[in-house]
Amino acid sequence: MSDRNQEATVYVGNIDEQATEELIYELMLQAGPIRTINLPKDRVNQVHQGYGFVEFMTDRDAEYASLIMNQVRLFGKPLRVNKALLDKQQRTVGTGAELFIGNLDPMVDETVLNDAFSSFNPVPGSVKVTRDAETGKSKGFGFIAFDNFDDSDRALELMNGQWIMGKQVTVNYAFKRDGKGERHGDEAERMLAEQAKKNNYQTATLRNNLASIPNRPPIAPPGFG
């Protein structure tokens, strides 16, 4: 939605497949009135992809939601909730932990690829299979982004040469988009990622301190936690 107020929107990730859009709405409503909610769905099976966006009426409610709803457990899984604008900025900067997955079977879609790499914690919504613009058919390769190089290194080590739907896939760091022929994962990117990790830790500590200040605590409906 191009007219969505990003300042009043939170990103909600790590959503269990059992959770419905209505359930997420009821949970987030405790932080304040909601304008819109969107959980992107797989175009084939119409099941949500484990993340979504909730737009509140005010920026303050969105900030409050990111403080009190982050790490709330739903069906045993801790939700990841933060301001969507901040999350978008972080993704734009990126860590550089992006992998190229080649030799994919034509039947492999985003859901299959995500399932194959799910144990390595890919960034929600980052799993993409490249398709022909006219036919929509897979070109036989895709990309997956990670929050850190520990996860991407582990995925590269363990998944390169593995079989997915009858074909042995190749895994390598993706080429950078600057056209210079360099791949992600170099020493400079790793140093920047390490610094970003320290900054994120400091931000999380500040948010935890703010969350401890008495405010309008939500009352969780039955079944949450």
From TrEMBL:
SMART domains: RRM. GO terms for molecular function: RNA binding. Its main location: nucleus. Transmembrane segments: none annotated. Belongs to the SF3B4 family. PANTHER family: SPLICING FACTOR 3B SUBUNIT 4. This is Similar to Saccharomyces cerevisiae YOR319W HSH49 U2-snRNP associated splicing factor with similarity to the mammalian splicing factor SAP49. It comes from Geotrichum candidum.
